[in-house]
Amino acid sequence: MANIFDDIQLDIVAKHKEINAPNATIGTVKRQRGWFRRYVDKGLYVLGWYTRFVDAGLIRGWFDEFEEYWNKVLSGRPLRFHDFHFLRGVYRQRYQDVEVETGAHRDNFLYAWQEPRNVYSIFGAVYKYGLNPWHYYPLRKYFSRGDKVLEYGAGIAPIVTGLINDGLDHFDFTIADIQQFTYHYAKFRLKQFGVTCIDIDPAILPPLPHDDYNIIFCMTVLEHVQNPKEIVDHLTTHLKPGGYFVFDFFLSDGTKLDTQEAVDQRTSVLDYIKHHYDVIEGELSYTKTMMRTVVRKKNA
Q: What CA–CA distance (Å, rounded) separates 274 from 214?
């Protein structure tokens, strides 16, 4: 009998095929807590109480969504709240040995992200953004009603999810990533809201629905890919002049799920950004990890 609790084995490529189908099973949990979430919950977060309430199970919309996904899409055994944290620890132990080979062929690169041990990444991301679902909030001044917004290498898509959960859905949203685990969860969560989902082949730059995005996010991406310079160039061509590019770039040693190619191309990536953009927040650093950085595309 298959173990559908602490050793669930998933063919995530097949799962993406299922969720891309018109009759896919997608999430039904709508925006959480309405105006209470937008105002009271943010106050609780500032005071340090929100994360405590999440850990105590008093705020658990994030868990309700995950439980629906685990049961309906992954066919996992029914979970109680404490089961989530038990499984997060179990799957974390297996995930720590996942690694991308230097110079890996496309298929090997994809397999590193698609092998079953990566199921931990869903647990980790759901919990992380359950504790702080407002990652868009410090950047709210860069959004205008009707903007075209792209989250590239979206993973669980924390920016788009946070905006939608707060009722800020008056945008044209696109998310894009390879067919991996957290991106599958993002599709499950966001397709009910009409978000456009683009599957990426790491060997081919994907066609995107717009050439005039107002803001593009590329967070926790560049250190993981084999062609960061090519990706930044591609995204720049799809960003309108004066639009914002929001990214980070960890200073990596090129091991685990980071790539040596990203280490080698760091200088050329930052030189390209310096030439095509003005820095609005943060700084371009060649020698240390860059956290969230906002740059604006030059008009010429």
A: 19
Confidence category of residue 2, pLDDT binned at 50, 70, 90: confident
CA separation for the pair 75, 48 (Å, rounded): 35
Same domain, 85 and 153: no
Q: 276 and 257 in contact (C-beta within 8 Å)? A: no
Q: 34's torsion region: left (phi>0), alpha (psi -120 to 50) or beta?
A: left
Pair (143, 113) in one structural domain: no
Q: Answer yes or no: is 1 within a domain.
A: no
Structure tokens at 165: 């959960």
Same domain, 153 and 292: yes
Number of independent structural domains in the chain: 2
**Boundaries of domain holding 112:** 12-130
Strand pairing report for 239-249 and 172-177: unpaired
pLDDT band per the 50, 70, 90 thresholds, residue 34: low
Q: Is residue 2 part of a domain?
A: no
pLDDT digits (tens, 9 = 90+) for 118-135: 999 999 999 999 999 999
Return the pLDDT at 32. 61
Question: What's the pTM value of the predicted model, to 2 decimals?
Answer: 0.96
Phi/psi of residue 23, each to 5°? -100, 30
Is residue 78 scored above 80 in pLDDT? yes
> For the chain, how big is the Rg over CA atoms in Å?
19
Specify whether the CB–CB gap between 249 and 266 falls below 8 A: yes
Note whether residue 252 is domain-resident: yes
Mean pLDDT for the chain overall = 95
Do 230 and 113 sit in the same domain of this protein? no
What is the spatial distance between Cα 209 and Cα 214, in angstroms, rounded to a whole number?
Answer: 13
**165 to each of 143, 174, 193, 208, how far by Cα in Å?**
16, 16, 10, 24
If asked whether residues 117 and 183 sit together in one domain, one would say: no
